[in-house]
Sequence to fold (333 residues):
Amino acid sequence: MKKIKTAPHVPSEFAIRPIGDNRAIIEIYPFEPGYAITLAHPLKRVILSSSVGCAPTALKIEGAVHEFDSVRGVVEDVARLIVNLKHIRFKITAPLDRVELTVAFKGPKEVTGADLSAEGVEVVTPDEHFASINEDGELKVSFVIEKGMGYVPSEELREHAPEGFLPLDALFGPVKKANYTIEKMLVEDNPNFEKILFELDTYGQSDPAELFQAGVATLFKQMEIFTTELGIKGASAPAKSKESDDSLKDLLMKVEDLNLSARSHNCLTRSNIRFLGEVVLMDESELSKVKNLGKKSLDEIKEKLEELGYPINETLPEPMAGNLRAKLEELKG
Fold:
């Protein structure tokens, strides 16, 4: 016998199952019949179109003046080098939206993505081929890496590129695949309720769970005009998970509470580093530049970070890192 309802059933179960480093399955259930696709499809489109990633936006090769040029001693011409660079996936680890890098090589050498890493930038596809340099060849390239979303053609970046640089088509999207399946499930005596199995596969620039969270937040943000203008009560943006709140709270621990030696503690505080999160946001090269911080103190701090679950050079996922920077800025005035 069909029950009369005055409101649809609200899903109550949510789980994230990581599958390797760059993939995850997100389960949400149970939905009223027909409601699963109503939610899953727009969420898929938002994640694919609005997730923030990094991409090269401009390139300069010493000795080359246009994209159909060639470089003496380098097997690939400029057009091929541009294609190869687009296949390499970058991640900006510094608190910046734009980084300019210059690298130089002498042959013979096979240059891969791993050779393009530098301070503030990580290559998440280190095995991707970039260039083959002959024995008498040399290659010096400068390129710009930026954060963005979606696809931006080179024509729109021409005025944005530094002088002497070739603008590149930029594909920022960090998501390799976003698929969903909908399964039937039994709720009480009704076998037609639904479960969403959302699969996210990324290029390694961002954690799948963080991308999913950001996609949900974006979708809610787009709906805010309705809740505001129509005065709908009880509709608000999704709260951060307790796990995220606890993690951020841990990162706001003061340096004096880390039980470091007096020398290590004094080096940090004299450089106006007051919170654990500030140290976590630094890579090893940045930390080593702290005034008067010797190797022994550096090793002690690295050991403490490892103990707390924040190994040096392991970057925080977005949007946690962004939330942390904003909170630190607020606390430090």
User: Anything to note?
Assistant: Confidence is low (pLDDT under 50) at residues 239-245. The two ends are 63 Å apart (CA to CA). DSSP finds ten helices and 14 strands in the chain.
